[in-house]
Amino acid sequence: MLRYLALMLAMSGPAMAATPNPPAEPPPDDPALRSFTDSRGCVFLRADHGERVIWAPLLRPDGQQRCEEPQPGRLVQVGVYVDDENAMIAVTRLQALRLPAEIGPIQLRGQMMRVVTAGPFSGEEDLRAALRLLRRNGFADAFPQP
Length: 146
Fold this sequence. Notes:
By secondary structure, the chain is α+β, with helices and mostly antiparallel strands. Helix content is 27%, strand content 31%. It has helices at residues 2-11, 14-17, 84-96, 124-136, and strands spanning 35-37, 43-49, 52-57, 74-81, 101-108, 111-121, 143-144. The radius of gyration is 17 Å and the shape is globular.
């Protein structure tokens, strides 16, 4: 149903296809990525219409855009990547470990990059367990964000 709503919005013409609140940062350029949550917590669904890709906002039943407050807890930074493909590979690996993962934009030395985080983790015990799991599975440089 959610995909259907996104497709209806994407194909309904210029007036309705205009996104009142576009993503805060560009979604990764990955055709396999079907949904994206921006740094404000707003959810977007990918709609492919021929050669055109539209990131349509996910709407609640009341018609308002679905944006959620960031969850409390701490994030673990897993890596920073220049290209979207490597960031998506890291996210896929995190998801295989059954960890929540996100990609966010970061500017370092004047260059836009992607930071991959896992979490949020509530409580020090969950945070330490996640760090152990990450480090055992190839993310040796993972560290908790403040």
